[in-house]
């Protein structure tokens, strides 16, 4: 008990010593921080240079860790995106299934709607249904009948070839000498024939299934053709009504436009009638001012005396002026006569 009572007294100096040590460490750290802050302007370029020098090494060391950290961070997002994509794909598949069901049901519904007026003829349609089902078989038989002459022709050609085979062998004897040269070509032809035969063998089941496919697809094709032609028929039926409606709508507009333009046309015609005499008068004035006559007078030159030559030139100039005035006054007289009426 005495030891327990003395234990706090023993621990108190230790606690005080520890507190003092911690205080000294904090003071040293603060002092170091202050020194670093004072030396920061000097150490900053060195630190940057050191960082640039150590950057490749740091990248080599830290890049896998960074990639791993980034992957760990992005992994939930990637999982979430994958889940969203899966949900979207499921929704898209559901929508496609619904659309497919609608597309499958729509022809049936339209067929029912189209057959509603034909309910009285339902027994007749039921009687015609086996004929419609037998129609692909009939088409196939017709095709075989059409191909039968070709088959007979091929058989005749084969018989003819068999009859002509000895002659062909005699003709082919020179070619047998060239057989080593023609062997690659013959092999190529043989390969092509084998490929054609293989293709025919592959297509044979399809040819056998063709009547069944026609049997299945013929009602759908007929319905599709009917659905495609129905809007065209409706458009052809409604086209005269649409044209008549368009004409009735445009007729008042055309009449209104004609009534609006008629006074303007009359005004333009009146202006033309008023301006016609003025234009004629301007034309005559321009004609009177622009017509000038040039009269050439021949002056006889004499070498006897200078006085006689001057008198002859004055007389010729006077005659020229009189003729010019006479010619210029003639259009003016015509203009005055037109004005006076």
UniProtKB/TrEMBL annotation:
<dbReference type="InterPro" id="IPR000515">
    <property type="entry name" value="MetI-like"/>
</dbReference>
<feature type="transmembrane region" description="Helical">
    <location>
        <begin position="268"/>
        <end position="288"/>
    </location>
</feature>
<keyword id="KW-0472">Membrane</keyword>
<keyword id="KW-0812">Transmembrane</keyword>
<feature type="transmembrane region" description="Helical">
    <location>
        <begin position="33"/>
        <end position="58"/>
    </location>
</feature>
<feature type="transmembrane region" description="Helical">
    <location>
        <begin position="212"/>
        <end position="234"/>
    </location>
</feature>
<feature type="transmembrane region" description="Helical">
    <location>
        <begin position="241"/>
        <end position="262"/>
    </location>
</feature>
<feature type="transmembrane region" description="Helical">
    <location>
        <begin position="94"/>
        <end position="117"/>
    </location>
</feature>
<dbReference type="GO" id="GO:0055085">
    <property type="term" value="P:transmembrane transport"/>
</dbReference>
<feature type="domain" description="ABC transmembrane type-1">
    <location>
        <begin position="27"/>
        <end position="210"/>
    </location>
</feature>
<feature type="transmembrane region" description="Helical">
    <location>
        <begin position="185"/>
        <end position="206"/>
    </location>
</feature>
<dbReference type="GO" id="GO:0016020">
    <property type="term" value="C:membrane"/>
</dbReference>
<feature type="transmembrane region" description="Helical">
    <location>
        <begin position="65"/>
        <end position="88"/>
    </location>
</feature>
<feature type="transmembrane region" description="Helical">
    <location>
        <begin position="124"/>
        <end position="148"/>
    </location>
</feature>
<keyword id="KW-1133">Transmembrane helix</keyword>
<feature type="transmembrane region" description="Helical">
    <location>
        <begin position="154"/>
        <end position="178"/>
    </location>
</feature>
<dbReference type="InterPro" id="IPR003004">
    <property type="entry name" value="GspF/PilC"/>
</dbReference>
<protein>
    <recommendedName>
        <fullName>ABC transmembrane type-1 domain-containing protein</fullName>
    </recommendedName>
</protein>
